[in-house]
């Protein structure tokens, strides 16, 4: 049986959990059983039992919903991020060899976020950071966020770009319609399509900003088979090449060299075939999206039964993650 490491797995401590979705959202992103998800997010004992039952050797865990991510007071945001990162280390250490983690950052203050990234990696042994959505309505290609990327390159750790809920204005304009319910519109605007499209735009903007020319050794991770970008690599090359730009290389060159994509529980052959065709097995990681998705036997079985070479299977299942996150 192939060793399996999954890398988009989430936690949230009960004291930090939102009680319900925002008033303007008609669907709960925690799915059909939000109480179960809320319980599993913070219960490490049940998490390990689940991993043992379904053949998952290690999870790389992260928190896309920590209050530090949306706190507008910089001092309080730093305090909250440090509390989460410190508590996480204590909990992981109870289960040696089963977990690695990505840091929570106080994004309201990018300079402080870079400092916390350094502390979390060098002092706490965390393996990078996760940034969810568009912080405070700002895409990450804006210059104030450069210190975070500079620090990630300096430390040689990746940053996982995770979806977040698009704004109400985006959802109202693009996804809601009088021809179907607001609940359908909000599902299309979130997990169905919208937050993936927005995160793909995030990646597109970062590459076109020249980020990887500034920081050529920086590594970014994109879930859900690349949030739609891999299907458009050739078209992006063609049309961005028609206009003057400041990039030193083609769009796809940066994407294939500096970006890793994960399955995020989308265990479907067409998406896997496309991801492998565009990226190669050396830039694909395995992920379930626990506990928002509970794929159970599929986590290991889909990969073990996939029509790929044994070498590629090992790369995707664990070798790429071990190298990228320095898990050995």
Automatic annotation (TrEMBL):
Keyword annotations from UniProtKB, A to Z: Lyase
Give the residue range of the signal peptide: none
UniProt keyword Nucleus, yes or no: no
- InterPro entries membership: ACMSD, Amidohydro-rel, Metal_Hydrolase
- Domain Amidohydrolase-related stretches: 43-327
GO cellular-component term (any): cytosol
Q: Which GO terms describe its molecular function?
A: carboxy-lyase activity; hydrolase activity
Gene3D superfamilies, sorted: Metal-dependent hydrolases
Question: What Pfam families would the database entry show?
Answer: Amidohydro_2
Extract one GO BP annotation from the record.
Answer: secondary metabolic process
**Protein name in the entry:** O-pyrocatechuate decarboxylase
């Amino acid at each position: 049986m192939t060793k399996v490491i999954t890398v988009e797995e989430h936690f949230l401590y009960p004291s930090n959990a939102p009680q319900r979705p925002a008033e303007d959202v008609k669907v709960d992103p925690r799915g059909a059983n939000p109480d179960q998800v809320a319980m599993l997010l913070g219960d490490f004992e049940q998490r390990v039992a689940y991993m043992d039952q379904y053949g998952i050797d290690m999870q790389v865990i992260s928190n896309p919903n920590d209050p530090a991510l949306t706190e507008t007071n910089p001092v309080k945001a730093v305090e909250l991020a440090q509390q989460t990162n410190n508590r996480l280390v204590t909990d992981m250490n109870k289960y040696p060899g089963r977990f690695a983690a990505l840091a929570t950052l106080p994004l309201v203050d990018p300079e402080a976020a870079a400092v916390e990234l350094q502390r979390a990696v060098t002092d706490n042994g965390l393996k990078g950071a996760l940034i969810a959505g568009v912080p405070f309505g700002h895409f990450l290609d804006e210059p104030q966020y450069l210190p975070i990327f500079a620090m990630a390159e300096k430390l040689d750790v990746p940053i996982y770009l995770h979806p977040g809920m698009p704004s109400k204005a985006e959802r109202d304009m693009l996804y809601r319609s009088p021809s179907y319910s607001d609940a359908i519109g909000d599902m299309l605007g979130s997990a169905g399509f919208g937050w993936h499209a927005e995160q793909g735009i995030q990646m597109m903007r970062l590459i076109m900003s020249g980020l990887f020319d500034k920081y050529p050794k920086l590594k970014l991770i994109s879930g859900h088979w690349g949030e739609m970008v891999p299907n458009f690599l050739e078209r992006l090359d063609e049309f961005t090449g028609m206009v003057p730009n400041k990039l030193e290389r083609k769009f796809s060159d940066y994407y294939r060299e500096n970006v890793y994509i994960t399955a995020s529980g989308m265990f479907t052959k067409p998406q896997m075939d496309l991801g492998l065709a565009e990226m190669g097995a050396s830039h694909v990681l395995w992920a379930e999206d626990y506990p928002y998705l509970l794929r159970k036997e599929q986590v290991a079985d889909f990969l073990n039964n996939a029509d790929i070479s044994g070498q590629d299977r090992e790369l995707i299942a664990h070798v790429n993650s071990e190298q990228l996150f320095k898990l050995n």
